[in-house]
Amino acid sequence: MKRNDVAQMIDHTLLAPQATAAEVKELIEEAARLHTFSVCVSPNQLPIETPDSVKVATVCGFPSGAHATVVKAAEAADSVAKGADEVDMVVNLKLVKEHDWDAVQADIHAVKEACGDKLLKVIIESAALTDEEIVKCCEASEAAGADFVKTSTGFHPAGGASAHAVALMRKTVGDRLGVKASGGIRNAETAQAMIEAGASRLGLSSSAAVLEGYED
Question: Which residues act catalytically here (predicted)?
Answer without folding.
Answer: 88 (proton donor/acceptor), 150 (schiff-base intermediate with acetaldehyde), 180 (proton donor/acceptor)
